[in-house]
User: Which sequence fits this backbone?
């Protein structure tokens, strides 16, 4: 492992994260607590950012650009990591300027990130906005800018969830698991996991992805493409085993920024039994899908808690209704 690309990372996350046992209703299962990767840096994104910022620092980057929804966990984690490393950060957020800011957006502003708000239509061309701004700014200042794609899902970022699998392997006998259930936004976490399974030649495990943002065919292709690109770039083209991916579709019908009252009911019931807080955009929806798996008789599926806790504070009225 000495020359492994997995070693080229900064230490930004509190890892390994714990794997804990839970009982809920008649079910027993494991949760891997990636919500505990840090406080300001909490959640899955910081694992990706360890690799992305290693590249940024080694290339002398002065400013990072990234993007997401206005309550983007990835954007918040990027702002925090950049602040730690003395790197400037500009965010391109789908949303609009608000009088009352809360949750992730509050942290972004508190840490002095520069923010450009985009309408939903403009968001469709967010990469163009970031690229044109980068070209203009680099031409007119001494800044060296790195664009971090949505969700930190670059080839370097994806290494974070390949590394995760090596970490999990030390904690749990993977032969005793049948799957891992996760929330999926940009798809990078899933891409890392299926790439990692291919590298380790593990064929019996399924990665159950709950797509909260993109339709099933779009996200499925993106996950395969990102996993293949990372394998080709860093692992001598290890062949991707596509059978380890399964998309659990239909758990975000209310829309990415919303959550149904039925889902909140389950989230609250689980919270008051376990002390675990699940967020409205990602992990709350993923847990509802996970619960359906349990009810359908699936056994030994691990739930990966990918964080997002700050998002709860932008939905307190709905959560307490
Ligand atoms: C809390 C949380 N869970 C899951 C995800 C999904 O991760 P990915 O974008 O790698 O699919 C995100 C990313 O946006 C997130 O913030």
Assistant:
């Amino acid at each position: 492992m000495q020359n492994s690309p997995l070693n080229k990372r900064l230490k930004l996350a509190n890892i390994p994260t714990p794997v804990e046992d839970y009982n809920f209703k008649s079910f027993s299962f494991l949760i891997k607590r990636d919500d505990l990767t840090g406080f300001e840096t909490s959640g899955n994104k910081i694992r990706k950012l360890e690799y992305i910022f290693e590249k940024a620092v080694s290339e002398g980057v002065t400013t990072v650009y990234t993007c997401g929804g206005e309550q983007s966990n990835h954007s918040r984690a990027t702002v925090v990591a950049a602040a730690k490393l003395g790197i400037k950060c500009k965010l391109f957020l789908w949303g609009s300027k608000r009088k009352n800011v809360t949750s992730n957006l509050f942290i972004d502003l508190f840490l002095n990130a520069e923010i450009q708000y985009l309408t939903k239509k403009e968001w469709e061309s967010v990469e163009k906005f970031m690229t044109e701004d980068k070209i203009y700014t680099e031409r007119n200042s001494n800044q060296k800018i790195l664009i971090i794609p949505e969700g930190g899902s670059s080839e370097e970022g994806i290494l974070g969830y390949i590394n995760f699998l090596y970490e999990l392997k030390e904690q749990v006998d993977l032969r005793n698991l049948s799957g891992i259930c996760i929330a999926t936004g940009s798809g990078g976490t899933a891409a890392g996991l299926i790439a990692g399974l291919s590298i380790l030649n593990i064929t019996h495990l399924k990665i159950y992805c709950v797509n909260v943002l993109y339709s099933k065919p779009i996200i499925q292709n993106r996950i395969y493409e990102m996993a293949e690109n990372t394998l080709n770039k860093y692992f001598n083209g290890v062949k991707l085993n596509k059978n380890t991916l399964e998309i659990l579709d239909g758990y975000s019908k209310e829309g990415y920024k919303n959550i149904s009252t039925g889902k909140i009911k389950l989230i609250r019931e689980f919270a008051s039994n376990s002390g675990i807080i699940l967020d409205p955009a990602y992990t709350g929806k993923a847990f509802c899908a996970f619960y359906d798996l349990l009810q359908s008789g699936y056994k030994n599926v691990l739930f990966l808690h990918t964080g997002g806790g700050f998002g709860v504070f932008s939905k307190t009225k709905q959560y307490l209704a």
In short: The beta strands are 19-24, 27-33, 63-69, 88-94, 114-118, 145-147, 179-184, 206-211, 245-248, 301-305.
